[in-house]
Amino acid sequence: MTLMAAAMTFDRPEAEPSAGRESIAAARAGDVAAFELLMRQHERLVLATALRLTGNIEDAKDVSQEVFLKLYRNLRKVDSDAAIPAWLYRVTVNACHDLRRRKPASAPVEAAELLPAEGNDPQASVTEAERRRVLELSLRLLPEKERAALVLRDLEGLTTEETARALGSSEATVRSQVSKARVKVHDFIERYFAPRKRGRV
Amino acid sequence: MKPEDSLELLRQAHREPIDEAHYAAVRARVLSDIAAQRGHPARRIWALLSAGVAVAALCVAFWPRPAVNSRPQIRAAAAHVKPEPPLVATRASQAPAEPRPQGTVTRRRPKHLATGVVGPKITQPLVVKMVTDDPNVVIYWITDGTGE
């Protein structure tokens, strides 16, 4: 249930669970319109996760396409509509991992001190674009497994148990990865805004 | 800045909505792939059907027809006639070569013994007197019965 709740916390409206059950039953029977409805219910989950893990929208779209085609082919294997989000998270993480193996990340992240901070005050008014930039750069800084753990646990709001299941690792490993990732991200953000702070002082 | 603030900053960025056009693009790509996949079985069925029709037409064209009466008779008559074996094969089959003796040694008799003609038998010693220019020198050549 946490997965469903997590999926519903964001801006896109989610369909009723009963509608989900009906659409998955119809999609299993081969109804393409029902499958499209199912896609609409879960597309934010897949695309946003893929975007955070791959770092660019084109790769995220490729991953999303692959994930939904897999869902279409494996609809009969998914036990219930409640199991779909967990299944989607796992398949999305694996698809991003496969993509990264085929196409390694191009540019390494630059030193945070050399990146000019565009906002005036990090705590008060950080612009939307700057927040996005910080998020993108700090995630790019992390190793792949730590990034996946942080995205699922802290950004998508899964529990440690659900994150561990999605990543195929133990809860202890996930806790350790999330902890390391949080420290690295915090250090990065502090260094990112440090020049501007020093300038103000 | 506290660690919680850093995380909150990231969460805010993550909550920002993604452009609707990206979702629509993904949906369109997935649905077109599904349509292509669903099209495949129909095309396969059509291909199988047309292949089946072609095979049936070939079978009808080349199916062995009921045989005419005269044909088996000709075949039977032809079956009784034995072709004359080639000459070389006949000779070879009638006079098989005797196996050559192997590992035996033959000894030939001398010609004069084999024919049975024997020269004059010398029983007494033969004396040949040779006179030279010198009246004082006379050579006597005495041979035994074998001519030695």
Entry keywords:
heterodimer; A: 201 residues; mainly alpha; elongated; B: 148 residues; two-stranded antiparallel sheet; 5 helices
Nutshell version of this structure?
The complex is a heterodimer of chains A (201) and B (148). Chain A has 201 residues and is an all-alpha fold.
What does it look like?
The complex is a heterodimer of chains A (201) and B (148). Mean pLDDT of chain A is 81; it is low at 4-15. The N and C termini of chain A lie far apart (48 Å). Chain A has 9 helices and no strands. In chain A, helix 3 (32-54) packs across helix 5. Chain A is 71% helix and 0% strand. Chain B has 5 helices and 2 strands, in the order αααααββ. Chain B has helices at residues 3-15, 20-62, 70-80, 87-94, 111-115, and strands at residues 126-131, 138-143. In chain B, strands 1-2 form a two-stranded antiparallel sheet. The longest helix of chain B has 43 residues, at 20-62. Chain B is elongated, with a radius of gyration of 59 Å. The model of chain B has no long low-confidence stretch (mean pLDDT 74). Chain B starts with a helix and ends in a 5-residue tail after the last strand.
Q: Are there runs of chain A of 5+ residues with pLDDT below 50, and where?
A: 4-15
Percentage of residues in strands of chain A: under 5%
Greatest chain-chain contact = A-B, 40 and 27 residues
Global structural class of chain B: mainly alpha
Low-confidence spans of chain B: none
How confident overall, as mean pLDDT of chain A? Answer: 81
Task: Give the secondary structure arrangement, pairings included.
The complex is a heterodimer of chains A (about 200) and B (about 150).
Chain A: H1 2-8, H2 17-28, H3 32-54, H4 57-73, H5 84-102, H6 128-141, H7 144-155, H8 160-167, H9 171-200
Chain B: H1 3-15, H2 20-62, H3 70-80, H4 87-94, H5 111-115, E1 126-131, E2 138-143
Antiparallel strand pairs in B: 1-2
